[in-house]
Write a structure and sequence with these properties.
single chain; 407 residues; mainly alpha; Serine Threonine Protein Phosphatase 5, Tetratricopeptide repeat; RNA_pol_sigma70_r4_t2; sigma factor; RNA polymerase subunit sigma-24; transcription
């Protein structure tokens, strides 16, 4: 077994588990993160000589615990603070009966505390739960690495200073807290499904799988919450297409060109069942339920030519009222192109220029519409801008090929 591959697999599978275990014990995200990082660095040094341990997760957790204790012993003043923190965390009221005892879910709720700004919650969750590096997160947010590092540090400091507890909220607090957690998990899933880190796989299944796992746990906590069900359905219907989304050469495969026989039909069936269950309630759907319904229409078509675009546009019309964001308007325009033609869609897309000028998908959509209208030079320019802004290697390869085909 290649040791580098083993360390990489262990990092993807065990990072969040190790960080969560240390956070529970020491009550400090900073200590947990640094000790976990040191444990993985030790694995890189020792596993080539000693061999990969039978239980890498247990080895890493034990090593990280020792690293944390050594650090705290070196910092006597910090140790006093840690004792206070441990006492505080141990003194929290017991969780309600039926709460899920999952350390990573506790970590998500800690990182997603409402005292933190939404962008900070996402960045901290990507770092502590997803294990992304600060440079990877900075690229995802289109900010400088130093600025992202400071943002994450301030978030951990705020959690420590405010004594934010490491636990799943009580049943009474869950409804108010869950919307922020769902937003973060959706963004974590998206980062996995269209990874932006240089040198990483274009699709990070570790992130998509963890986002789905955690959303399933939240659904157990809140089985009647429509948006929890909607987000889970959306993730499942999207994940079902993962194996067909990147070609053997590493290029993104657009939805209309995918081999639908390669889709995971079990995930499709589960996702569509969740969508139908929510429709049957007669309760007005929220953002995630509408996005899931749109994906259900796509996955119901055996061939792209069978897609019910009128239904998709109608769903986008409802979504615009719930979420009037320029990205939703952009996706609606792409669907409108299939009904009313690329000229009508292009006019709608061009109205979004000021809001989405730095968003690669805006330029990619515009390039495709210009290509379909036979406006080659303008399409090439739009492709160039999309390639410049895209951070995913598979997507860049796809856009480059489409641009070069214009010649």
């Amino acid at each position: 077994m290649n040791v580098d591959d083993a360390v990489g697999r262990a990092h993807r599978a065990e990072w969040a588990r190790v960080v969560a275990a240390l956070t529970k014990r020491f009550g400090d995200l900073d200590v947990a993160e640094e000790a976990a990082a040191e444990a993985f660095a030790t694995a890189v040094e020792r596993w080539p000589a000693d061999g990969v341990p039978p239980n890498p997760g247990a080895w890493l957790t034990t090593t990280a615990n020792r690293k944390a204790i050594d650090r705290l012993r070196r910092e006597h003043k910090r140790l006093d603070k840690q004792k206070e923190a441990v006492m505080l965390y141990d003194g929290d009221p017991p969780e309600p009966v039926g709460a899920i005892d999952d350390e990573r879910l506790r970590l998500v709720f800690t990182c997603c505390h409402p005292a933190l700004a939404m962008e900070t919650r996402v960045a901290l969750t990507l770092r502590m739960v997803g294990g992304l590096t600060v440079p990877e997160i900075a690229r995802a947010f289109l900010v400088q690495e130093s600025a992202m590092g400071r943002r994450i540090t301030r978030a951990k400091d705020k959690i420590r200073a405010a004594r934010i507890p490491y636990r799943v909220p009580s049943t009474a607090d869950l409804p108010a807290r869950v919307s922020g957690v769902l937003a973060v998990l959706f963004l974590v899933f998206n980062e996995g499904y269209l990874a932006t880190g240089a040198g990483t796989d274009p699709v990070r299944q570790d992130l998509t799988a963890e986002a789905i796992r955690l959303t399933r746990l939240i659904r157990v906590l809140l089985p009647d919450d429509g948006e929890v069900a909607g987000l889970l359905a959306l993730m499942l219907l999207t994940e079902a297409r993962r194996t067909a989304r990147v070609s053997a050469s590493g290029e993104l495969v657009a939805l209309g060109e995918q081999d639908r026989g390669a889709w995971d039909q079990h995930l499709v069936a589960e996702g569509q069942r969740l969508v139908l269950e929510r429709i049957a309630t007669g309760i007005a759907p929220g953002r995630y339920q509408l996005l899931a319904a749109i994906n259900a229409v796509h996955t119901s078509a055996r061939d792209v030519r069978d897609t019910d675009w009128s239904q998709i546009v109608a769903l986008y019309d409802r979504l615009v009222r719930v979420d009037p964001s320029p990205i939703v308007a952009l996706n609606r325009a792409v669907a409108v192109a299939e009904l009313d033609g690329p000229d009508v869609a292009l006019a709608a897309v061009d109205r979004l220029d000021s809001a989405l000028t730095g968003y690669h998908a805006y330029h990619a959509a515009r390039a495709d519409l210009l290509r379909r209208l036979g406006r080659g030079p303008e399409a090439r320019s739009a492709y160039d801008r999309a390639i410049e802004l895209a951070g995913n290697t598979a997507e860049t390869a796809y856009l480059t090929r489409r641009r070069d085909q214009l010649a």
